[in-house]
Target: LysR substrate-binding domain-containing protein
Amino acid sequence: MELAWLEDFLEIVATRNFSTAASARNISQPAFSRRIKSLETWVGASLVDRSTYPVHLTSAGNMFLPRCQEMVREMYRLRTDCRNVAGASSQLITFASLHTLAIYFFPTWVHSPGMPNAPMRTSMHTADFLECIEHLTSGRCDFVITYDHPDGPPVLEAGPFESLQIGQDRLILVSGVDSSGQPLFTLDPAESDEVPYLAYSWNDGYLGKLISVIRSRSRRPLNLSIVYQSSLAEGLKHMAVAGHGVAWLPQICVRKSIAQGELVQIGGQQLSLQMEIRIFRRTGSSNRDVEALWNFLAQTSERRLDGSISIAR
Model:
């Protein structure tokens, strides 16, 4: 059982409408409905009567409501008391990030010269795009680090959120190499054979959609045949190195493999896409360490990206 489920329940009690409640919680209605259902499963009884409009609470829901309100108040009171006892200096700054950025971007970025309060006490939750966004909107992390592109899915464009660009990366098409260092696969239009393609899983929330943008811009159809799928760029990279097919991967992820001659970029710049690396937060924070980091990043952003921030070039 999660605190977010209790807060979701209180929101549906306040609005009596799933769509309105989901919007207030800054998540999609299907995701909101799943969380209410998860709470009901945990309780072992239906709490909301969905057959009426506006929705009403069941008898179990009416019994659960005052205890729910009390539990939420007590949890936040307990958190405040613990923080006061421990002192502000002991607080963690919490992040959620895509796996690739957590592995290849965050470790160097968080120790960039001039970062405030170094060494910072941080924790990282790695997940897919949608789960990262849900972590931020539900208050389970201070920051989300993710890719962003004007033609990609919108990222927290509405609600009390703000963002800064902290780096850049490029999505490129790569192939493994043969013994002479030549690509195992090419996109030569003269070749009629299908090219084995290592793809992101159908439910990938961001990079898969950016790849669709790249393919839609191609001047000719790409004769690709999916032979493997994964939600992890790291998994696709190792399959490409092993010679199983071609894959679109963030440059930050494959830079070392290209330098070592394990992979090579194919298709040229027309089959690549520049992406921003952005950090998002909920507007306003009572954590002074979070504010100090945000103010530092905002000041750095005003000077444009330099070598200490744009480490994913």
